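Class, study these two lines:
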Amino acid sequence: MSGRVTRRELLAAGGGLALAGLSRPSLAQAAPFDWKKHAGTTLRVITLKFPLAEIQQKRIADFQQLTGIKVDWEALPEDLMRQKIKVEHLGGATDLDVYMSYYGQEGQQFLASGWYTDTVPLIKNPQLTNPDFQWDDFIPAVRDGATVNGQVPIIPDRAQALPILYFRRDLFDQFKLAKPKTWDDVRNAAKVIHEGTNKQVFGIVLRGKGAAATSMLGPVLYDFGGRWADRSSGDIAFNTPEAVAAFDWWGSMLRLYGPPGSVNNHWAEVTSIFSQGRAAMVYDDITFATLFSDPAKSTVAGKVGYAAAPTGPKSEAWRSEPPIAPNSTGLAISGFSKKKEAAWLLVQYLSDRTSSQRYMLQGGLGARQSAWTDPEVAKALDPEFLETGRLSTQINAPGAAPHSIANVSKARDFIGEAVVASILGQDVKAALKTAADRCSELLKEERAKK
């Protein structure tokens, strides 16, 4: 080890949220920086229609005034966004400058295809990087997860964390249930509330739309003792009794205690059902806390409790392991862009302290250490949420599919068919074997091309 602060040490310090000695450099002391260098340029951006993107989009007007750069911003639903970014790159488009990217799902393919710009030379160049950008302000584990063979293809705009369990405090009080600690606790609570309300309230809502479910199901798979792939060889390893048990748990929870038509539910549908008060629990991305706590958007605002991901029989065996693979979500500069320097001005502006702090204030997990130590954040946020976030960022999620496969989207589609089979009460073992065989063939094809 080089003496760098680890994620666990960072979040354990000062009640789990502080890194002692961090100070924000004064803008008055910073070297002059020319924000107007590329005035008159127009940048095109494609990003996800998501709470953090909304924060960033609201800052575009200030950026345009500061730099003289015009920004054409397009925020799309997740599936459409991913498809459009891929299609444009496959077509060699040079007018897409900046886009949102999740390395865990598409990074290997994008990196190998030259669709990313390495930002390390940009970060190190004082003529191109605002001195207040401060790469060292990013949480050490976030920097580690963003670094791939010495390159930084994505500037992270959020900390990575396991999904969390949201639960209705009022219903748990009504039925005298404790906060779930294990997946068995979750099953019991879902059954008690679903049956106790005469099935007027779903016990739980989870993603069930095939591939969309795999990123949430991944930790459950590992908690039950399964794995996407062998950590050292990369060979497919999820065709096991433990994996069958995990997939069966997911599907049976929705089949018995979830909403009809769960196979059509992505995160938008799942969060809508919970925010409407129609479900007692939802296990999903931690960033949805902002939605559930907003009285204008949620009927359960003020009634939501937060719990770190429950545990299974094999949780301890994997949750303390180092990251399986690079994992970063944020803004990337297209490798085909002809305006990389101007694009870098936008990326660094939107991933600064202000965006990180505002994201924390809306319930997200800021990528920067300064966001976690911000007095406004500590004052504004539910202590239970902050503690849940602290615990969740200490665990490295296993990803949405085998880390050894570059074409993650296709692998998730294969695995997603097994998720659907489980929800529908079909033969999970057979469906999982088919998915594993297809992923193994895909991996074999990819290895043959190297």
About this structure: The radius of gyration is 22 Å. The domain at 164-321+398-449 is CATH 3.40.190.10 (D-Maltodextrin-Binding Protein; domain 2). The longest strand covers residues 42-48. The CA atoms of residues 221 and 246 lie 5 Å apart.
